[in-house]
Amino acid sequence: MSGGGRKHGRAATVLLLLLALPAAWVVAHHGETWFRQLDSFDWNIKWEYLLLSTVILVVSYRFTPVGWTILAKRAGSDTSAPGLRRAWFTSQLGRYLPGKVWLFAGRAAFLKGKGLSGYRSTMVPFLELLYTAAGAGLATVPAALLSGGTSFTGPAMKAVAAAGISILVIPFLRPIQRKLYAFKYGKSPDDLPLPDRATSLRLLLLYALLWWTRGIVLYLWLLGFGIPGVGFFTCLAAAPVSWLAGYVIFLVPGGIGVREAVLTAMVAPAGYTGPVLVAAGGQRLILSLVELSFALTGTTGTTGVPDTGGGADDSGDP
Where are the domains of the chain? Predict the structure, then answer.
């Protein structure tokens, strides 16, 4: 490993240790109460709910790259849809590295390697995150209103704010990108590599539907552990908000710990924080296994559909 690589590795280790200190304090401060709750909790496991939750999670995860595929095609990618899906599944593991930049860097590098310009290949992962966050906001608002008692504090409030900003930015993407093109290339093309209004609406609805599905997965999972008093609409709101909170704290790999803490704070009935936290940790493990399985399938190319090469990278035409 080079000297720069060792320095970055040591810096990442120090940052992770610093981030672990607040978590250790929380566990030390509340751990005794949580352990008492776990000790007194009657684990009435309902395997049919856990199985249904897992099946829905796997099926919904299979459709998660649809938005990325649409955006990549709109940017001019000639890679086949199966090839784009495989790249998405494989690069998804990058979110478990500190900073989360590796996920986006991997997808941008893939598109650039297939012939897109650096500007377009970088734009696609950014737009995917923007639409995902905006879809999270769209999914959260009605669920929170229908839940009647969902609380948003700390990281959850930052997540809701990020979702709101994402929704507000989308209508201004075209004028913003025209100015960026003019700044970088001296001119703005007539046909911008952006979704039209109808496609933007479909992407927002797609991501909102995926987030509501994750909320249903969470609700069934908690029912499977026999946790009483869990609200259906609260789970629909907690799934996207906890994901966004994990991105707000961007140095934490995969949002591990942050997501579970926000989710637990939102959905746990009084006196059940410990059991909900354990259940949330179990769901995180299942999700990580699902992501790993799809990534391994992507690297082996089991879809059987070959990739097509990308177009030429003309640096004079973004």
Answer: 48-298
